[in-house]
Structures are given as structure tokens and as C-alpha cells.
Amino acid sequence: MIPKELYAKFDLDRGVIEGGTFASRHLSDLNGNFADQVAYDEMLSQGNPLLYTVSSLEPAHGDGQLHYGLGVLMPGKVGDEYFLTKGHLHTWRPAAEVYIGLRGSGCMLLQDESTGDSRLVPLHSQSIVYVPGFTAHRTINTGTEPLIYIGVYPAQAGHDYAPIAKQNFRMIVVERNGTPTLVER
Ligand code: F6R
Ligand code: ZN
Tens digits of per-residue pLDDT, 9-44? Predict the structure, then answer.
């Protein structure tokens, strides 16, 4: 028998890691995250679509251990801004993270906590994004199919959503002339 912390199967169509937790985020969970609040309210009045799911596994706890999650972010836009995850800093700020793109295409918005400097990094199948510590990160789907990725992070990382909920990212990714474009909020 292989100990269960050493091995897990995942299903890309269901977005599930066997033995992991599963969380769903709908449009109503992202109030305040999109720049165009009028477009957001209008879309929400028509329904409450699923924006993304995360299935996470915590195989072990303590110094040096790792946790990981499988994310599935749907394609779509609120106004001209592409669907996105809430985004967060790690509670333990030095914690970095590696994102491995499995399907679809999009990007990660990275924002240094102390300088506010922003970078937009492509995330798609067969690509890896390294998120340094002390960096707020958000995933954005600029494609037409679900963007699927795995994130691997220190067990001690934790998720701190409060700074983004309070102030949001400085930059947004919108469609301009058919092209994903990074602009000031
Ligand atoms: C974990 C991590 C990802 C995200 C996932 C959903 O540290 O960065 O697994 O949790 O992309 O995004 P949030 O957590 O911002 O809703
Ligand atoms: Zn993270």
C-alpha cells in the first residue's frame, strides 16, 4: 500500500484531487473584485455563474512540507475585464508558490506588496509561473476554455485575502481591440 500522502490522482474534467477539499466560487463571491461594478451588478441580476473551483490537498504539516491545489477558472468577462480569482497574499509572506499550467490559456497578475510593482505573466498548458514571496497573485482566464493549473506552496503559507479585499490590485486585464491588455484600474 502506498501511504495516501505520497500519491493522489486528479481529474481535470471535474477539477478534483482525490481525497482533497473542494471549493466553488460563484460571481456573487467576487463582489468588489471587478472594476466595472455596473457590469457586475447587471451580470449578477441575470444569474450567478460559477467562476472557479479549487481542490486542495494538505498531505503533511510542518516546516518544509508542501500543500497543493488544482484550480479551474472559467472563461468569460465582466464588462471587458476577464474572469479572475480573488487573489491573495500568503499569510506567511515569504512563502513562494509554483503554478503549473495544464489546460487553457491566461495569465497571472503579480503585485509586489511593498512597491506595488505589477507584472503580467502568461499561464497556459506546458508553462510554469514562479510566484515569489511577498507578492499578491491572481489568476486570469483570457482564453475561451477553462484555465486549469496546479499551485504548489509551503504548508505554512496560509491565505490572506484581506489586503486585496480592501484595496484590490492596482492593474486590471481587459480586452482592448480583441487583445488582453494590462491597464491601470
Ligand atoms: C494557493 C493558490 C491557489 C489559489 C487559487 C484560487 O496559495 O494561490 O491555489 O488558492 O488559484 O485563488 P484564490 O485563493 O485567490 O481565490
Ligand atoms: Zn497562493
Answer: 999 999 999 999 999 999 999 999 999 999 999 999
**Is the pTM of the predicted complex or chain greater than 0.90?**
yes
Residues that place a CB less than 5 A from ion ligand 2? 97
Query: Which residue's C-alpha comes closest to atom 11 of ligand 1?
Result: 71
Picking from 125, 123, 116, 170, the residue whose alpha carbon sits closest to that of residue 142 is: 123
The C-alpha atoms of residue 171 and residue 174 are separated, in whole angstroms, by 10
Q: Hey, where are the domains in the chain?
A: 10-184
Fold of 10-184: Jelly Rolls (2.60.120)
